Fold this protein.
Amino acid sequence: MRLFFAINLPAGEQERLHRATAHLRAADLPVRWVPPQNLHLTLRFLGSVPGQKVAAVREAGARAASGIAPFDARLGGIGAFPTTRRPRVIWIGVQKAEPLLELRAALEEALAPLGFTPEDRAFEPHITLGRVRDGARPAQLARLVELAATIHYTGVLPVRSLDLMHSELGPGGARYVRIGAAPLG
């Protein structure tokens, strides 16, 4: 099973964010946009996990979540990886609230005994809005910086549980199914 841990946005906030970024999707950019129901903050992508290991992964998530009190994270600011001039992933930022960093560290620690090596790159909390299509030319994305400057979205991400998600890949894109939820605190 292809799994990841996430903080899911409430449905109302997913819709607010989707509406606030509508003109990006309407701009005919070579981007595969994330549908509103898939908007989330990934805390840790696990990749393919054997079925017999899923229960242990779920338990590791519960241990990590139990030591962190519920909190809110602020959303806002649009950007891209690696840069807005050479984008591959377009995102909305998530404030690096200390509890979010603590939750991520606790999750890494809980997963390590199961053979999940901590990620080398720094954790950059974000909500992916879209991924640039392979083969897109820089000229096709030239308007991104200008369009991004017009987005004035701010929101709140209530962090109350750590969700274990199953990613089902299909011809219409990915479908995410929550297979576990560990309450914080």
